[in-house]
Amino acid sequence: MATTFPRLLLEHAAQRPAATALREKEYGIWQPLSWSQLAALVRELAHGLAQAGLQRGQHVVVVGENRPRLSAAMLAAQSLGAIPVPLYQDAVAAEFVFPINNAEIAFAVVEDQEQVDKMLELRAQCPQLQHIWFDDPRGLRGYAQTGLASLDELCASGREHAKAQPDFFDKQVAIGAPGDVAAMFFTSGTTGNPKGVVHTHSSLIDRAQAGARFDNLSHSEEVLAYLPPAWIGQNIFSYAQWMACGYVVNCPESASTVAIDLNEIGPTYYFAPPRVFEGLLTSVMIRMEDASSTKRWLFSTCMTLARRVGPALMSGSPVSLLDRCKYALGNLAIYGPLRNTLGMSRVRVAYTAGEAIGPDLFSFYRSIGINLKQLYGSTETAVFVCLQPDHQARADTVGVPIEGVEIKLADSGEILVKSPGLLKGYYKNEAATAEVLTADGWYHTGDAGFIDASGHLKIIDRAKDVGRLVGGAFDGAMFAPKYIENKLKFFPFIKEAVAFGDQRDRACAFINIDFDAAGNWAERRNLPYAGYADLAQKPEVYQLIRECVEQINADLAQDQLLAGSQISRFLILHKELDADDGELTRTRKVKRGAIAEKYALLIEALYSGASSQFIETAVKFEDGRSGSISADLKIVDTRTFPATQKAA
User: Fold this and answer.
1) What pTM did the predictor assign?
2) Which fold has domain 467-637?
3) Residue-wise pLDDT tens digits, 525-575
4) Contact 188, 585 (CB under 8 A)
5) Which CATH code is given to the segment(s) 397-463?
6) What residues have CB less than 8 Å from 604, skipping those under 6 apart?
7) Separation of alpha carbons 444 and 437, rounded Å
């Protein structure tokens, strides 16, 4: 039934007033907030915002980690018909200028001193930003800037406003309609300025409910909210579906305690982009490096069995009685303890999205008994387009179109989507809206793919990124960089990779080593190093990465379509790719254009046959200072393999 987020809140508060809506960990203790308490808090905040002058249709910027009072502030703004605009909390102040000015934002609700400092720094460029409220007062006692106040003060103001106008809140909620704008999410801005994606209550709630029905979600689920609220994936799972289902959302104490908090909560419904699953697997592999030889042997033996039997058990496929017994023993010795270590003992449904996940990484989690599935969607589609049904999760697809979704393919192979969850448009950007939305309601995803014989959608890559090799042994062969990069990142020693090859005679790559994993590997071999740049250029590390690359090449040779994408040369970058340096988006997606421009010298060195190349790169340090890093980077050749011919 069509509704709005504030109405869903009031329904939960009326039907289950004492049930827990949110938990926040503070000083090591989980503090619950019931639905009735949340509704009372939202009411106070809404009255306070109205007292401050917030009007229907205006925007409110929200910046911070997942915090109950920030979620409440979003609900309060929506109750008044205003529009919350979550922004990435790890962005530098300059990145806020465009969205704040674009949406003419005068009101901000932020988490702590760090975000307050950013907002105050922006006031010269964003003079309309008059009101700033903060949740955490630590470090802010001496601040006396005009328009700066705590959320406690806003609540106090709201209580006074409520005494004067006791019916105000309920009347405002009643005015709200499902077709009203509910939120605006700014895209990553991989090229040019980010675009504000406008979503209504209807588009967000419809997709949240469709996803809940698909996986039989209920109010009994436990969710850990640890990803940036500005990312629509986090927003859907920890806000829209939270409101739709009424389950419990848990907010970690800090980013550094997420692993501990994951173990304590034991979520039943879990969502993470591939990079998080990569990081968890890397931590496991580092621990196994430090384990005794007996434990390493047991782990290796059990995982060999798990890779062969586990996915079949998860998919409901036939498995022999002997293998079932062996797997049960492995579950007691390895898989169960491993799931517990990862904090996934109670996970009933786990999803990954945001970018393609490597097939080996995907199979690893399913092999140890975690129901990891893939979904397909984007900010513009309110996430839920395709989901994988239980027992039909495969590494090479992203699932089937779910309730309400239609998919068709353009002549170019681009995927077009029609769904109730489509964006209303890009804010103040009719030209960009017209580029992606057709007159008859089809959305251009920009992804290349096809529907296979079983009705599952397969994604090849971003349509603009899929290229062709020109010249050489694989002239005309398809080049799909993301597919190659994901395969490389399965190795715990490789954190990031950027592949090149379109319109060139062969594929080459930049590699970022995983400093923790490679550092642990080096220390076990008594290999000294003085930081990332030094470790990255060690001959032993190059040999380690070369072996990883050649394993991928051997695997690619088995795929006639992508055999030409084997990496013939690579180098290890002297620094980690960083969003602050404009090389990644805030969701850690590679900005290919920016990297190609910034490191053009290195790309040419890869293709010229040079054995090394000096590079000096401007960087931004965590404290805001600018500087540069220079190094003489080695470039090495790798073994490639002839394409395997399949038998007729």
Assistant:
1) 0.83
2) GMP Synthetase; Chain A, domain 3 (3.30.300)
3) 999 999 999 999 999 999 999 999 999 999 899 877 788 889 999 999 999
4) yes
5) 2.30.38.10
6) none
7) 6
